[in-house]
## 1
Amino acid sequence: MASSTPKASEVVFSLNLKAHPEGGFYSETFRDSSITLSRSQLPSQYEELGEGSKDTDLEEITASPKCRKGKELQISFSSSQNRRKDIPPKAPQPPMSNYFPPRTIPGSQPTIKSAMASKEMKDAADMAMSWWWFDASIPFNAARSKFFQPMVNSIASIGAGYKAPSYDDFRGKLLKKSVEEDKVDRPVSTSIYFLLPSGSVSHLHRIPCAETWHFYMGDPLTVFELGGDGKVKLTVLGTDLEAGQRPQYTVPPNVWFGSFPKRDIDAYSSDGSSLVKAPTRDPETHYSLVGCTCAPAFQFEDFELASSSNILALAPHVEPFIHYLTLTG
């Protein structure tokens, strides 16, 4: 790096960065709350997240006081609660869909009532719905709505004689109630500065939103991705376009990913089964400064940190990288 480039501690101080739980230092620069996203507007990967767990294991993250002087760049963690070890955590509650007739759940058995229904009865029910569907000019892709089958299940749980809502019901009280229940406190996007000094890594983690990385200054940074199918992808952020580096890159939602300064690794095999670390470098003069933009907005409730014991089964062929990018456990 050129002599005119500021030291890492100077950047941390100037940009008011603080320690990040996944490694490195960050500062949120923008949270767009001008738009409040509803549940139906969130991507499908948010459907089971709800409002997010409030029982987080990371309550406070503090940087070592020496980091501003450039002598030490460390992260310390503190537990969010003093939990009694003899009391196990509560089991997650099943989704509400479990309380409806289960015949539509993949792999489940039909109810006795539906199993005993004749083919003629099922055909009659399908045609009754079809005549209403066609007469009302409802688009065919409405059948793919995530609310379609729950509606059918709800009606079936009541049985014959259910009186459907009226025109005025839909336009009035039901519309108002659905808007109120559909609201969620989720800004449309967030952006941060992120500084990763040499010798540090951004540990493997995943979030349910897309995250776009922007390279600003310093050493090139390698982004490591691990998909649910065990496939690995490495992308280098930097300004050397001829070498294949990118000034911007987007990590898809729900992908395990982490990052490390590219020059901290001397070499690695094409299949990721081995890697050779470079000699230790001064983190004050060797670091990467990037930006990260999430849409929908990032919230720590969504943040899931990987551990080597849990992630190794997914991709044992890249064990060296997993140990390099995860916390022991």
## 2
Amino acid sequence: MCLCLPASVYCFCMLLASTTDVYYSLLLFVSAYCCLLLICCSACYCAVFVVAAVFMLLLLCCYFCVAVSMLLFLCCCFCAVVSVLLFLCCCCRVVVSILMFMCCCCNVAISTLLFLCCCCYVVVFCLSVVVSVFAG
């Protein structure tokens, strides 16, 4: 739109100038005005395109940063899940170790009882031998 209007004015002025010499100064003025408008509009369009390109790049950078942030968040969640699983595994190992310690204590208690029973059996046997020697 900005480029079409000056071009049409310039063409109209060229038609007027070709018919008479009176409009020669008007033609120079209008052509200069049209060139100035074309330059300004082109500069405006270029500036708009540059600004739009910069905003698009900034938007893409923002999307990239959001994607990286989401990936980091997912990695953090994964690490938290792994940490919880490792903690639960450690707790299970502690429980298993406590159970094994209790079994070991039970084995020691049973072994002690068996040893005491064996000692009692030996004492009873020795007493029976002594009684049979004195009795017989």
## 3
Amino acid sequence: MDDNAPPHGARIVPAGFQKVGVSHVVWPTMTSDLNPIEHVWDHLGRNTRRRCHALTAVNGENISFTHCE
């Protein structure tokens, strides 16, 4: 699958796919709802924010720490 980005359109790419027997499926561009990695990043981000606590202005100084469990 590819999204028709310029690197995927080079003549060598379809020839390489055909040579190794890979079928070509066109993937719609800019479809984050169909892109599984976007769901993974969302899940990872939410869990990271839930488990990390930021501490700022420790002892009156302008220092920032982040603690993750």
## 4
Amino acid sequence: MARKQLMERVDDDRTVRIEAEDCFRHSSTIFGQGCLRFSSWSDNQDGKGISLCARRRQFAVILRVPHSLPDANGGSRLTQLSRQAEGNMRVPLLLALVALASAHLSIWHPSTFDKDRASTPNSDWNSQPLQELTFREWWWHSNLDYPPAADKIFNLPANGNADVEISSNKGQTSMGSGLYPNPRDPPSPWDYRWGNLHAPHREDVAGCAFGIAYKSNQYDVKPNDFVIFSVVHDCPARQLQNFQIPNLPACPNGKCMCSWFWIHKSVGGSDQMYMTPFVCNVTNVRGDAKPIDYSNAQPPRRCDNGQPCVKGPKVPMYWMQKEGNNMPEIGNTQSAPIYNSNYGFQEGAQNDIFVGGNSNNNGTNNGGSNNGGNTQLGSVDQNTDRSGQDMPNMPIQASNVGDCQSKCYNNQDCQSWAFDSCGTNCWLKNGQPTAGGGGCRTSGTINGRGGNNNNSGSFGPIQTGDRPGNDLDLVKAANVQDCQQKCLARQGCGSYAWDTCGNSWCWLKTGQPGLDTSVGCRQSGVVNNLRAEKKTIDITTSDSVSLQLTGTREERV
């Protein structure tokens, strides 16, 4: 794309003003670049060149160029520069002799935390790398106090996909000048002139990831509250990137904290990491969603060298900082940890992060089994307590709401729980006391266990598949448990089927037709434990002989 000419000829006193307020797009290979507002040219002391000083927020740029500058009709020329940032961090970059500075990368969305939000659309604060910083400087990309507007939330459709924009600068996204043509395509040919992809060759792309913390207040989140739930090995390599979402449970009060994570290979430049937090919410939640197994989440370890991979839920990789690291790799040794199979991350949705679905717990389950397929998560209710019916030795400690929920799920005697959202106490309960108001409390239930909802043992397991035939009625249901309950309440219903593809249809059925797993978009189950209740009726025959017959009528417990 033709660029706007920004230079004037050098005048007699060797000073030229450059009035440049706009960015331009160079090509899709760089996903946008940041603007510099150049101030002036002046002679070098040695007289052999000209230095350019530019001021841009906290950064100062010194660029040495040939003595004869290109005129208004001249082309750009690449030269080497160093960008000096606060904290004495130096990053070698390439810069054309225009109002452009090579940047790094971040995701961009109205839901991100961003202290530079007011700079619209030109902003690259979130794309700045994190390296050799204190915990307070690198955690949350130093954006804890700069949340998005209350209605700006990134939706994560459970068992679906979500697109996110990746760029060096917010100005080159849909929040600015718009996306490039074919934003899902990687650059072809691969062009490394600008370096912000940190991958000299196509095969050097290292992988990026999404993590989620089941807390709705950013100040409550700790590093180990995040669990990686989706990974793309070939990332960053395109401006519009798709992430697969696993079968995540609902967020407390419709709001979780998420973050984008990226570490490039050491061959791509200075060792550093990237973290862009944002507000998220899980949508299309299914009734069979299980809690994330936070109790067994661990940092990954390199496993392409004969060592075993860490299985199950993994926390993000924190690395190359002055404090707060959880990865042992030494910087500047060409051994950066990365989000791909070398560290046990499969491509796509991380389906091994849930309770009962990983091997990090070495066969243990923190107090009991999960009671099989009929055990289901109930609602998560913020500012709600469930007083009474505490199990022995309560409270215990939990890192967050999801951890408390998973501890209850893992204990076969636990039917509900309550978490101190202003601290770390977690109460497991052997019943389901009535929910009531409670400050600093979030609580919930585990359904399908003995005594729940006065229907102990009434349900068989919820299974994937349909039960064709024997239709009794077609009704609407909020989820599979709601469909299950409607069958329980309906006289003559012995089984049910629920539409998992979002249409909310619930088929109530007489009897218990066989399971057909070839039918998509269906979950189904049966209602068990029918009892016989004696009924006595009088029958008078034609010869006036009175008979008394006793029969049975099936009713559910």
